[in-house]
Write a structure and sequence with these properties.
Alpha-Beta Plaits, 5-stranded mixed β-sheet, alpha/beta, 8-stranded mixed barrel
Length: about 750
């Protein structure tokens, strides 16, 4: 375990132990208090009703305040709930210390202030817990919440009818107000809880059921108390008093979890079935109150609430057809028109009909985000969804009024614009790229993204949306592969697009049918002439086109998101071959090239370590080759990934050294073992003194930093000798051997051992 992680666990451990210990004490006190109330039948008891009763109030309050401290007063929901519990405990303390021998207190009293403060503060806690999420919920979800809340309130109003009548009959205005406040606050609290339970779109955090359960127990105790008080049968010391203590204990479990640091992403509670059933139960309850009202007099408030419940529940039935039609045309995540809406509206907007007297001109822009898969893989799909929402907002703001923006799915968007020619469409495409150029703030991180845009013109390049979509898609991939940002479809793109789609289909088949091969190119020590390792290089044995080199298909692998599968296959084949060489007495280090999109996968280091361990190989048997572009694009993430790999014993090499960024500070900061000098520096050495001097100085630089230097592209004996004279550590190139299959390399190694008396040179 890394030291930083050990430190965090060490710090968090005592806190969790203290809070868990307090929760045990809380429930032990509730059990003792309940037992005392059941056993005590002689009126208020000092031990039970004062000491035990007050401990059941104040120990949960301590748990709440510990949660406030752990969250550094930053969680409004935790703070409001803590104040509610504290006011309630203070009121209870006042009550038991000032009541008379019969357990009674004048009504109203200062204790009622504290008791009543519990309700608005706890309602504020619920609002603070949910306020950010309420903005993004669909109106149908909010309607379900309202139906659930009103139905629950109707039932509660019916139950509290006698209490309300008794409260209104109080002779004093203040007493009336206070007496009415209790049932009204209970009604609001239960309604809020039912509204939460009715909404499947709300994520209320870990152990939220304990909060809801505690509040329900609390409100139920209030109702029973109110009914007993109306009948004149309530006295202090009844078993009912334990219900409030139990409610506080359940709420303490919630606040303890809410006050802890989150470990990993927040996962929504799975409440789909209960969320669907709550509105249905609420409607049945509302109808029940109305039907019962025809036989038995019901409070006016209960009848009004029941009527509202049934009325709101009927709204979706009235507008159901319209709602379903709108939902069918709308993207759930961004709220934009979806693919179905685009295909429905496009003929009208662009007047595709051949009978139109005046032909409309327009353009279809197909937009695909660059490196979006990296965001999903490294930060999670929830962050990727946030990025899509922000992207859609920026695109919408940057478009002219006559343009239609739609999300087709994934990270693809389409823009349909009328009264536009090639120049206007191209200018709009670059304006959209400019709108996306500013960083996006996601979960506290500044994330940059760009877009590749393909453009197809109407009617010149298509008379229907399907044709325009296909050609815009070809143009978009042309823009992505050439990195020009935006590209207008040309006839040359058509054949390329069809070939690309065909190759992509064949490539997917190649991955599943084991058509990929791994060739190996030896790496030779310039000091001893010994073969110290090999580089694994992928090839595609195409059934029709023969053996394909990486440059023929790797770009397509990257674009299509198949790079993770290809990397897994190459690693598996290379490590299996390493096992065979190890058994034959060849301790060769195998180098495997890693793409930047593979390395953003945070699970990759652990997977590679497991693959090596499963084969019984030493970790040093594998070397991963990465490019300077990856090291410089995200230095902090590169450091984190490479440090984990290097700590496991896996070697790291920088491939194509010298062709990337000019800054060399990463050589000092990052865990690197080896530099591979690009062939473009090695090839001109014999004829260019400056090139030779540059190679020599680069070798000295590597050695001064404690790194090994490998020269790639060594094709002549003179280059081999010159590199040895400069002190280069290893050489790799056609002069020794081209990349060959493992079986051929075995023969090459055997021939080398028998025919080379001088091992210092091939």
């Amino acid at each position: 375990m890394p030291e930083s992680v050990r430190d965090r666990v060490h710090i968090a451990g005592p806190r969790l132990t203290v809070s868990n210990g307090l929760l045990v004490v809380v429930f032990a006190l509730v059990a003792a208090y309940t037992a005392g109330l059941l056993l005590n039948t002689g009126g208020p008891s000092l031990l039970v009703d004062v000491w035990l009763g007050e401990l059941t109030q104040w120990v949960p309050a301590v748990v709440f305040w510990l949660a406030v401290v752990r969250t550094r007063f930053a969680r409004a929901d935790v703070l409001f709930a803590t104040l509610a519990v504290t006011f309630n405990a203070a009121a209870d303390t006042y009550y038991v210390t000032t009541m008379d021998a019969a357990g009674e207190l004048p009504f109203p009293s200062p204790a009622d202030i504290g008791y009543l403060m519990f309700y608005p503060l706890m309602l504020a806690a619920l609002i603070a817990l949910l306020r950010r999420q309420m903005r993004g919920l669909a109106w149908s979800v909010l309607l379900d919440s309202a139906v659930g809340a009103l139905g629950s309130a109707a039932i509660l109003a019916a139950l509290l009818g006698p209490v309300l009548v008794s409260a209104v009959n109080e002779p004093e205005v203040l007493a009336t107000a206070v007496a009415v406040a209790y049932p009204v606050f209970d009604l609001l609290l239960v309604a809020a809880i039912a509204g939460i339970a009715a909404s499947p779109g709300l994520t209320v955090g870990p152990r939220w059921a304990f909060l809801v359960g505690g509040l329900v127990v609390f409100a139920a105790a209030d109702i029973v108390y109110a009914l007993l008080e109306v009948s004149g049968t309530y006295i202090v010391g009844l078993p009912l008093d334990a219900a409030w203590a139990l409610g506080l204990a359940l709420m303490a479990v919630w606040v303890d979890a809410a006050g802890r640091p989150r470990r990993g992403p927040v996962v929504a509670s799975r409440r789909q079935s209960s969320a669907v059933s709550v509105p249905a139960v609420a409607v049945v309850a509302g109808l029940g109150v109305l039907i019962l009202g025809t036989q038995v007099a019901q409070p006016l408030a209960a009848v009004i609430l029941a009527s509202l419940t049934v009325s709101l529940a009927a709204i979706p039935l009235v507008f159901r057809q319209r709602l379903l039609r709108r939902q069918a045309r709308t993207d759930d995540l961004t709220g934009l028109p979806n693919r179905r809406a685009l295909y429905t509206d496009a003929p009208v907007q662009l007047s595709f009909s051949s009978t139109t007297a005046r032909q409309q001109h327009g353009a279809l822009l197909l937009l695909d985000l660059d490196r979006f898969k990296e965001v999903n893989d490294s930060l999670g799909h929830d962050v990727g969804d946030q990025l899509l929402v922000q992207v859609s907002a920026r695109l919408r703001a940057a478009l002219p009024r006559q343009a239609t923006l739609a999300r087709l799915g994934g990270d693809e968007f389409a823009v349909l614009v009328t009264e536009s020619g090639e120049a206007e469409a191209t200018a709009l495409a670059f304006a959209l790229r400019e709108a996306l150029s500013r960083p996006f703030l996601l979960t506290g991180l500044a994330v940059e993204t760009s877009a590749s845009i393909g453009i197809a013109l109407f009617p010149e390049q298509g008379h229907n949306l399907s044709t325009l979509m296909r050609r815009a898609d070809m143009a978009m991939y042309k823009a992505k592969s050439s990195r020009v940002g935006a590209h207008v479809f040309t006839t040359e793109d058509d054949s390329h697009g069809e070939a690309r789609l065909r190759t992509l289909q064949e490539l997917r088949l190649a991955l599943s049918d084991d058509q990929l091969l791994v060739y190996y190119q030896p790496k030779v020590s310039l000091d001893t002439g010994a073969v110290t390792g090999v580089e694994a290089l992928v090839r595609w044995q195409h059934p029709d086109r023969g053996l394909l080199l990486p440059e023929d298909f790797l770009d397509l692998v990257e674009e299509s998101g198949l790079i993770h599968d290809l990397t897994r296959i190459v690693l598996t084949k290379a490590l299996d071959q390493a096992v065979r060489w190890e058994a034959d007495g060849h301790a060769l280090t195998i180098a495997v090239n890693m793409s930047a999109s593979s390395l953003v996968n945070v699970e990759l280091p652990d997977k590679i370590v497991r693959m090596i361990a499963d084969r019984g190989l030493p970790a040093s048997a594998l070397m991963l080759e990465i490019t300077e572009d990856y090291l410089m694009s995200d230095r902090e993430r590169a450091r984190a990934v490479l440090t984990r790999l290097r700590a496991a014993g896996i070697q790291i090499a920088v491939d194509d050294f010298g062709t990337g960024y000019s800054s060399l500070s990463y050589l000092r900061d990052l865990p690197i073992d080896e530099l591979k000098l690009d062939r473009s520096f090695v090839l001109p050495m014999n004829d260019d003194a400056r090139a030779a001097s540059l190679v020599a100085s680069t070798i000295d630089l590597a050695h001064s930093l404690g790194l090994r230097m490998v020269a790639e592209g060594v094709e002549t004996g003179s280059a081999y000798d010159e590199l040895a004279r400069y002190g280069c550590d290893h050489a790799q190139g056609f002069f020794m051997s081209q990349p060959i299959p493992a079986a051929d390399l075995n023969l090459w190694l055997a021939a080398r051992r028998t025919t080379e008396p001088d091992a210092s040179r091939p």
